[in-house]
Amino acid sequence: xxxxxxxxxxxxxxxxxxxxxxxxxxxxxxxxxxxxxxxxxxxxxxxxxxxxxxxxxxxxxxxxxxxxxxxxxxxxxxxxxxxxxxxxxxxxxxxxxxxxxxxxxxxxxxxxxxxxxxxxxxxxxxxxxxxxxxxxxxxxxxxxxxxxxxxxxxxxxxxxxxxxxxxxxxxxxxxxxxxxxxxxxxxxxxxxxxxxxxxxxxxxxxxxxxxxxxxxxxxxxxxxxxxxxxxxxxxxxxxxxxxx
Length: 244
What we know:
Blueprint: H1 12-25, H2 38-45, H3 49-62, E1 65-68, E2 72-75, E3 80-83, H4 90-96, E4 101-112, H5 115-120, E5 128-138, E6 141-151, H6 152-155, H7 163-166, H8 170-176, E7 181-192, H9 195-200, E8 208-218, E9 223-232, E10 236-239
Parallel strand pairs: 3-10
Antiparallel strand pairs: 1-2, 4-5, 5-6, 6-9, 7-8, 8-9
Helix pairs in contact: 1-3, 2-3
């Protein structure tokens, strides 16, 4: 049993909360793993279920644990909080938060632009664009399906490059081609995972998705990228700074 005598004068539920938190942070309870039942933990710590539940509820409020009705309590996955008052990409934001991120390229080819893509990029429908579809991970957990469309006329050299090494620094590639990313316009909405998304993101069909469309513009106002982004609702949140 964990030693709860080190924090004299501190309520017992606080000691238990700290002990459980330490077990989560050091990996004794792994991300996505079900923790022992309340009965087991109450017996382990020698306390009532009410005291134990108080500790667990605090950790749920912190975002370290979550409950699944009728199943049990689980360790939460790392949560990606994006600050949407600043224009950053997935890799910049995640690494600033100290997260280990990676991606897998699912599709990379030239295709004719569909209407919405062409409109966003100021092209004609069926004009050639480069499609880059990737699956992005935090540690080993899939969190985002990212589908970017780039004007072939501006960035055709990308097709001759190793996309596995280039895809995490597309903004740097744009700048080297003379188009530095300056601003973006995006739209967010709540959706549900269809069968394909659920399979890619290891979710249940119908689970919540935070959907995003975004157009990036260079300093001279040229649209240089349009994307669709599908983010796991249980691992992704947004933050916006508000002034009055």
